Amino acid sequence: MKSKILLIGIDGLNLAQALEASPTITALKSSGFFTTITMPAPTFSGPGWSTLLTGSTHEEHGVSDNSFIGHKLHHRPDLLSRAFYNDQTTTTFAAAGWPALVDPVGHGPVIHERREQQLAFVHRVIARDGETYGYDVIDAEVHEAAIYAIENKGPDVSFVYFCGVDEAGHVYDSVGPQYKAAITKIDAYVASMIAAVKARASVNEPWLVVITTDHGHRAEGGHGGDTPAERASFVIAQGYGRPNPTWPQEFGAHELTPLLLAERA
Length: 265
Known about the structure:
Elements: E1 4-10, H1 15-21, H2 23-31, E2 33-38, H3 45-54, H4 58-61, H5 79-86, E3 92-96, H6 99-102, H7 115-119, E4 123-127, H8 130-133, H9 135-152, E5 157-162, H10 164-171, H11 177-200, E6 207-212, H12 228-231, E7 232-240, H13 256-262
Helix pairs in contact: 1-11, 9-11, 10-11
């Protein structure tokens, strides 16, 4: 039985701070598969998410910063697209508020539009603009869309992205109360998505929920360099209706997508 995959991306999440402000994520770390990963520099969201979502190195996908100038993403299909190409009965869903990830008129997008599959109702993309309207508002909309999709459609492979934590890190810092409050808010969104997954999951409909981030933050806020705090990421994976994955304790960011695809084999 193929597992349904729900990949939750939380931009700019420092795990040490998360463990002080996120009961859901902390519990998942304890009960699920967990490992740390080191992101390659430069630690911008563009190359970070391109690496995580396409299974490609910086050199392969050609994304070196958030301008996406010179990218090769057309030749580097994302996790959702690769799952569909492997099995064209696969339904996919993506929701994000950073246009570069999902909006076809944005800088990328990292998640391919696949218009034919959208018209056939097997691929659904919720594209919002947190840069314009603020991530506090847009993350809430992304969460609502994700809950609806899980409860009513149960997509085979999904990517849901939140950016409020990263925004708080830039505006304030990554050690103060505002950053932790942003983590707590996203943690509540994760909790409700987990509840929706649990309501569906069984041995006949196994799910794998995975949480990761594209980079960390310096204590004063900000990223892009090659300090350990900026390069720090992690992977948490919890099975529902199935065991946790038996992945290696050490792997690179570009190896996450192949590991997820293997769970669909």
